[in-house]
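[[Encoded backbone]]
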Amino acid sequence: MVERVAAVLAALEEAASAKVRDEMGPRYGIWTEQALGLPMNAMQRIAKPLAPDHALAQALWDTGLYEARIVACLIDDPALVTPEQMDRWRADFDNWGIVDTVCFKLFDRVPGAFVKVEQWARLNDEFGRRSAFALLACMALHGQGKEGDFLRGLALIEGAATDERNFVRKGVNWALRAIGSKKSPDLRAAARDMAARLAASPDKTARWNGKDALRAFAKADQKKG
């Protein structure tokens, strides 16, 4: 395994760009202490021939390197991911890029993932709480989960709608818009009703969440019309 990890790290280093690394924070808001600087398409190209490989994914994650962790979530097998692994990886999240990619590419396909949405929504750290709503959004977008999950998810969204921290606020908004785009008439109506309530809230963060979601729903409805 040591040799396989070394080979992946060597491939990442060969494809790395100092320019990309230097722009990660200032341009994209991805601040992390350990990074080489690779665009997503380069990491996907390196990961593609390796998947699925649960053991290699664990070893790459443990290196702590941002790009190695992205490759890890691209090659892991969601059927083998445990709740304990989800919590362990979540505890390592230190920027929105790793949060969203892991949720979008891996965690939303793990059986029973909605349990983590409910648990992580109660966390106080910014990236921990964002993880809950990023995961909820990804489940909605990818058709994972049951209608009842998303109705409970809307209640979680309403409970976090006043959290003004940037990455939580945007995660909450993403989840609301994603649920509002579902085919289910009941979910669409519930999301729009919530957005309207939030838009009328005296709290500025909740109001922003509601108004932004209503604009997104109106724009989507115009395209369909």
Summary: Residues 1-76 form one domain. The chain has a mean pLDDT of 96. The two ends are 54 Å apart (CA to CA). The chain has two domains: 1-76, 83-225.
